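Ligand: phosphoenolpyruvate. Inputs:
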Amino acid sequence: MSIYISGIGVSKGIAIGEAFVLAREQLDATQVTLAKSEIKAEIKRFTKALSVASKQLHDIKKKIAKDTADDIVVFIDTHLLMLEDPAFNEGTIANIKEHNCNAEWALQMQGERLVQVFDEMEDPYLRTRKDDVLHVVKRIKKALAGTDEVIDNPSYKGRIIIADDLTPADTIMMQHQKVAGFITEYGGPLSHTAILARNLGIPAIVGLHHARQLIRHDEMLIIDGLNGFSISSPEDRSLKYYRSVKRHESAKRNLLNNLSGKPAVTLDKKQITLHGNIDRPADIKLIKKYDDTGVGLYRTEMLFIELNSWPDQETHLRTYKRAVKKLDGKPLTIRTMDLGADKEIQDTIEHGPMAHNPAMGLRAIRRCLKEPQDFMPQLLAILRASAFGPVRMMIPMLTNLQELDQVLVLIAEAKEILKKKRISFDDNIPIGAMIEVPAAALAADAFAKKLDFLSIGTNDLIQYTLAIDRIDDEVNYLFDPLHPAVLKLIHMTIKAGKRAKIPVSMCGEMASDTQYTRLLLGMGLEYFSVQANALLEVKHIIVHSTLKNLQDEVEEILQIHDSNEIKSRVQQLVNLL
Ligand code: PEP
Ligand code: MG
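Predicted complex:
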């Protein structure tokens, strides 16, 4: 009988194949008390297991090196670093000595301690990093037990792997073994395994509880990684249908791949700029995987988060130069840091009592202007980076013109410092602002007069316009890019840019969602900055659109007050393709 079960879809795509159910890993340790004379040998057994685990990871790295991007290998490096981390190894050895116990028990205690530290973190991404701790503990336990760890078996080819949990290394090896897809019983959409599955293009479902009881080994299976369901022992009808969906998907992928490197020009010959968003220079590799294009948003706060402090000028410069070099003449839009709200570091600056609502608090440019001496190294480094290639500077979260004036004074000061020291930079470096506070959108004309470009940050513009915290699940249902108020603010900003004859881009998530591409084109948007994996899909829509037809349609849509009606009209635009 055909069974339909659902979990969390984390990596889109249809996979069809026979299930390969991996045995549950019984790795719970039991405590064994050792004689004092046995402790030394036990520590040796543990350190040997550490080196076995480390060798396994190095072997995987070697095996995949040729056909895998650097940013994917980083996931293995994270585990290698954990293996070397004193919190892991010295902590476990201390447990063995203190409790006179076996290595497995000592390691389990240490793992639980570390998991608790991650569990208490507020940031949902960091909380998910406890998975890495568990994966590393598991790997060492297996090494202690002398069991084989690595998913490296040619019989996995074309199969759908069903497991309780998978490590990032397993996921990478799956691609190597040409696995069709996977289902895990645990894990969430932010786990490294889920991120990797998306990067590697493996259809995947996580959090499908009891999957290994519900699905039989060797049974035929269909999985839909976008919608997060699987159908076991499907009827012929379903098989036929999903095979045709899969064929359609792969034809679409080929079609999209053909667009790589081609200009984003509409049918009526309007050239649209299409750039990618990055968090760190290494992400440029991912952009290049899809298309050879520039960067419309580089979120530099990641550098602060990785260092857990404000970087010095040389660190900023080294990082930006790396990005400029990788882009090889393509533009790089560096956004000054946007710490605050959901992105925090434990810096040493005194901020007073904890804000009740950090999204509306001392965030981004507000924080930089409060500490101009700490902001200066970033401004100097961005200017200096402009000597090595086309760099634009973008300021986030501006609310009023006074803030903008203060920033412009600081930039002028930074330029003077560099001139005095005879350090080269581009004196005409374009300076732009993110329009993401409704007040700034309403005053976009005034901002546009003082700037070289504007960029609409819809993630924040929507949260502030609709008064919903973007990370609060409880009010997520109110998040609506098509709310008439949001559309009005976007349209006002685009028109202000046109009046001032400066470019307006959109770098919020709305630009990456192909549902809205035609609406935005019709509103006059000529510059999209999107997630790397959306580059070709957005381009596909652009090259199949005629601006003239869209403008009239969109003009009408902008007069509608009812969100549902707007939605159906926007859907009709999509269907024009
Ligand atoms: C936005 O707000 O739309 C944006 C692009 O910035 P971030 O997501 O980094 O706040
Ligand atoms: Mg923002």
